[in-house]
């Protein structure tokens, strides 16, 4: 006898729960459905596609980690993959495509071990520019943070320097993250459920999705095509800065190999820019709201370092590390990581998980599970003090299995350096006495909704 699907809301025969899909912060609704129906996971159908949401750390660990061999696929997205032209992107490529392994190998080589240290001077140079920017135009802190995140990754991926505040690559990073969210939104595009619609000509009155897709394709292409072409022209001129791309563009490289390099470098940009902005903005807002935590982190930096932080120093700041972990737990960058796909039929906890279904890890639910993190809505870095038994959120925030974020070793020191440098130079104070409510945007990456803050200088600005 075949096992049942995991429990969950059931909806109508044709569209499933399309009409009930939450418009904002779906991770909260999925967690609430989890409590209502019970068990480690829920399932629901939108039109002809089944989604299973894993709401507990055990289910995520048992399936996405221990059975990574069958849970590392990505759901096919006709709108995003085909109409917007992203099927070969690192984030979307099928785990069974031979390229997936090659991408992962190149990214691990370029972003791990010793290689990552080659980028430390870029991080330091750019954090100094960030501090100068926050000193000169503190009200534009959001733009400064965004500029910094994009400048770092453009230098690393392509050797491209961002010198002006309105460089087009700064806005493209934000746009592309938003577009990915819209183009992959469940229930939004009929073509995802009935792929036959992809053959409808663009001029056809109901083919809005095709015209929209063509527009998005152009913007998304600028992440990979435009900077890649720029590196090639620089290399041809002989005057170029060494980068992830230039190092891989060896003489005699084949067209196929070059295409692989292009997609990997584009993934650095797409993976790093908006995520780093999210984490840094959350840090700023949470420091403004928690002056005692901020003071303690500043005291640690001042006593341990005795000067402006550099990347090699940040591992000596255990309290700041705990602050970073708590920022990422309290305000996860990617509340549901990215959707995975089951590539084989499976069973778990007495339920059936059919091949082809989308499997979503509810990272937010795990990081706010009171059994793992007592009083989960309290911001408290001491959760991660030495001897604490609360799990390291690092086990969840970077995703899972064969899809785990390849940028961890790059992102962690980069974030710690920004956090240490900001706290070394400034005290962050809320602009208003009223305590601001902490709210978040909905998307693949979620952002804290910023409120007014002041940057009170702690040092002479000439020190920067
Ligand atoms: C705060 C910073 C970051 C966070 C929280 C983060 C988180 C994530 C998450 C949750 C995933 C999806 C994993 C899954 O599907 O299970 C992911 C994928 C990815 N990340 Fe990151 N990331 C960050 C920074 C970076 C950086 C700095 C880079 C590159 C320099 C990067 C490159 C990538 C790439 C290429 C993927 C796609 C992996 C694949 O599909 O095989 N990320 N990241």
From TrEMBL:
Gene3D superfamilies: Cytochrome P450. Pathway: Secondary metabolite biosynthesis. It comes from the Eukaryota. Keywords: Heme, Iron, Metal-binding, Monooxygenase, Oxidoreductase. GO terms for molecular function: heme binding; iron ion binding; monooxygenase activity; oxidoreductase activity, acting on paired donors, with incorporation or reduction of molecular oxygen. Heme binds at residue 405. Its cofactor is heme. Pfam families: p450. Belongs to the cytochrome P450 family. This is Cytochrome P450. It comes from Mycena rosella (Pink bonnet).
């Amino acid at each position: 006898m075949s096992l049942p699907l995991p429990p969950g809301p059931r909806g109508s025969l044709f569209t499933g729960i399309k009409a009930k899909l939450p418009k904002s912060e779906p991770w909260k609704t999925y967690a609430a459905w989890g409590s209502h129906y019970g068990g480690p996971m829920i399932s629901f159908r939108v039109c002809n596609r089944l989604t299973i949401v894993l709401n507990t750390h055990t289910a995520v660990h048992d399936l996405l980690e221990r059975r990574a061999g069958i849970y590392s696929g990505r759901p096919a997205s006709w709108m995003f993959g085909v109409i917007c032209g992203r099927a070969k992107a690192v984030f979307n490529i099928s785990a069974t495509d031979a390229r997936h392994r090659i991408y992962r190998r190149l990214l691990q080589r370029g972003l791990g071990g010793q290689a990552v240290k080659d980028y430390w001077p870029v991080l330091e140079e750019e954090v100094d520019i960030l501090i100068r920017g926050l000193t000169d135009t503190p009200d534009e802190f959001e733009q400064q943070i965004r500029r910094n995140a994009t400048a770092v990754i453009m230098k690393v991926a392509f050797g491209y320097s961002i010198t002006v505040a309105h460089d087009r690559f700064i806005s493209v990073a934000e746009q592309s993250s938003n577009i990915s969210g819209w183009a992959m939104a469940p229930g939004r595009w009929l073509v995802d459920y009935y792929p036959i619609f992809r053959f409808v000509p663009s001029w056809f009155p109901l083919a809005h999705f095709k015209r929209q897709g063509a527009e998005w394709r152009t913007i998304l292409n600028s992440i990979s095509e435009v900077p890649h072409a720029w590196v090639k022209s620089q290399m041809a001129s002989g005057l170029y800065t060494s980068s992830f791309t230039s190092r891989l563009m060896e003489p005699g490289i084949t067209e196929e190999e070059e295409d692989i390099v292009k997609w990997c470098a584009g993934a650095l940009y797409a993976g790093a820019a908006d995520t780093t902005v999210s984490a840094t903005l959350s840090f700023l807002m949470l420091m403004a709201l928690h002056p005692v935590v901020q003071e303690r982190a500043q005291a640690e930096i001042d006593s341990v370092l005795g000067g402006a932080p550099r990347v090699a120093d940040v591992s000596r700041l255990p309290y700041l590390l705990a602050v970073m972990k708590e920022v990422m737990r309290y305000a996860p960058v990617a509340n549901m990581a990215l959707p995975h796909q089951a590539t084989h039929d499976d069973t778990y906890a007495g339920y059936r998980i059919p091949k082809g279904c989308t499997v979503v890890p509810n990272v937010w639910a795990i990081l706010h599970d009171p059994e793992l993190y007592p009083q989960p809505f309290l911001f408290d870095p001491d959760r991660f003090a030495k001897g604490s038994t609360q799990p390291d959120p690092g086990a969840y925030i970077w995703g899972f299995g064969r899809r785990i974020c390849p940028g961890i070793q790059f992102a962690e020191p980069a974030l710690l350096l920004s956090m240490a440098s900001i706290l070394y130079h400034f005290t962050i104070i809320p602009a208003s006495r009223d305590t601001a409510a902490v709210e978040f945007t909905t998307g693949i990456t979620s952002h804290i909704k910023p409120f007014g803050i002041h940057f009170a200088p702690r040092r002479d600005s000439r020190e920067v």
